[in-house]
Amino acid sequence: MANDQVSVHGGWASRWVFILAATGSAVGLGSIWKFPYMTGIYGGGAFVIMFLVCIALIGLPVMLAETLIGRRARQSPANAMRDLAVAAARSPRWSWAALAGMVNALLILSFYSVVGGWSLDYILGVGRGDFQGVDGPKAGALFGALTSDPWRMTLWHTLFMVLSAWVIAKGVVNGLEKTLRILMPLLFVLLLLLLGYSMTTGHFMEGLHFMFHFDTSRLMEGLLPAMGHAFFSLSVGVGSLMIYGAYMPKSSSLGKTVVAVALLDTFVSLLAGVALFPIVFAAGLNPGEGPGLMFVTLPLAFGSVTMGQIVGLVFFVLVAIAAWTSAISLLEPMVAYLIERTRLSRVWVTVILAFICWLVGLGTVLSFNLWEQAKFFVSEAGHFHLYQWGAEGGLNFFGVIDFLTSRIMLPLGGLFFVVFAAWVMGREQVRDELSVRSPALFALALFLMRYVAPLGILIVFAAQFWN
Ligand code: TRP
């Protein structure tokens, strides 16, 4: 196995660049947009605690597994798994798990780009002063004006996709570093500023209480969503980290690096939640309001403080960039794979895949307006309908994609990756890649990867059906 060389796609200049790139991938809309709104829907503290448990016991071991597979094989996910399986005298069909993961990444990108587009729209809106002095209902109405306009959403979705494809077409290992080195710390500083603002709202304790106090009766309800979101937030389960691992220098300690990225990502999520909820309560908004939560809440904060216009502008620029550095990690695995498998150039592969994602994304755009009433998986009075227009329950197009990608495919992808690394590749290879010095730490990592994570995933699935 060619594990001392670099991949045909290039390599990161140092371990630091890998940390930046992986953090750039992990920290994104998942932490700032999705985590707060899911916390709101699934009962606050009950969701937060389940999320943290899933990160530590399931997400982290899978993250280790995924990165080490990539670094071992130095190829795109599907080829990595095929070659490593063959080297271990197992079936080359293991690569199917990676293929499914890469397809899942593209499905995620399809809606990710739409929401990334919202943040672009908000850069303009906040910068122009649209939100100065607004109250809760007005902020809600401004968000509604965006989501009810398919053309406006499509415009920003297109721009976001083009920006993402542009980086990928140029090659991900070049150019990313400079952007990340400045912007990630800046995002962090602005989140702290936002936190400072939250403390002045007079509802800070209420926000904290909401996030960390839990009602045991709601723990089970949020379990599968929390596990799915742990994967989403860490960027594991589709091959993003596998391909980034493939570009990682051999000399650096993978264990420490991966733990650092997971801690940073989790910290940003908690920070975003702690900063947002006091504003939600101060404005009398509903924490369970759904995907619009951040987009309704933040303008309220920025609209009511001095310099809010400029700080808000910078904030949405950073959200957009955080989303952008995540989106590229969703596109890169399949791009690398097709470069390896076909004669097409990087540019062509990128253009074709980005176009397909863009097209699927139009379904998400429409599910907020013209297709809002198109419901799938409806169960009504004991009857189940695959599709029904205007039904009460059920999921719209965005709901279906989100459910399928985050709750089903991410955990399944993670399950295959962790089983593959811990059981198929074997102990010695794992030891060699993880390069942890302490035997006790290695034993712990292996135990988590072999037993805790795979069983944890299966138990969460089983608990869901049993409920
Ligand atoms: N983790 C990113 C976020 O939180 C999104 C993301 C990037 C992702 N790559 C991924 C999610 C791979 C799942 C799988 O915004």
What would you say this structure looks like, in words?
By secondary structure, the protein is mainly alpha-helical. It has a single domain (about 15-460), classed as Amino acid/polyamine transporter I (Up-down Bundle). About 75% of the residues lie in helices and about 5% in strands. The protein contains 18 helices and 2 strands. The protein has helices spanning about 15-25, 30-40, 45-75, 75-85, 95-130, 135-145, 150-170, 175-200, 205-210, 225-235, 240-245, 255-280, 295-305, 310-340, 345-365, 395-425, 425-435, 440-465, and strands at about 375-380, 385-390. Strand 1 (about 375-380) and strand 2 form a beta hairpin. Helix 3 (about 45-75) packs across helix 9 (about 205-210), helix 3 packs across helix 17 and helix 16 (about 395-425) packs antiparallel against helix 18 (about 440-465). The model has no long low-confidence stretch (mean pLDDT about 90). Tryptophan binds next to helix 1, helix 2, helix 5, helix 10 and helix 14. Pfam families: SNF. This is Transporter. It is a multi-pass membrane protein.
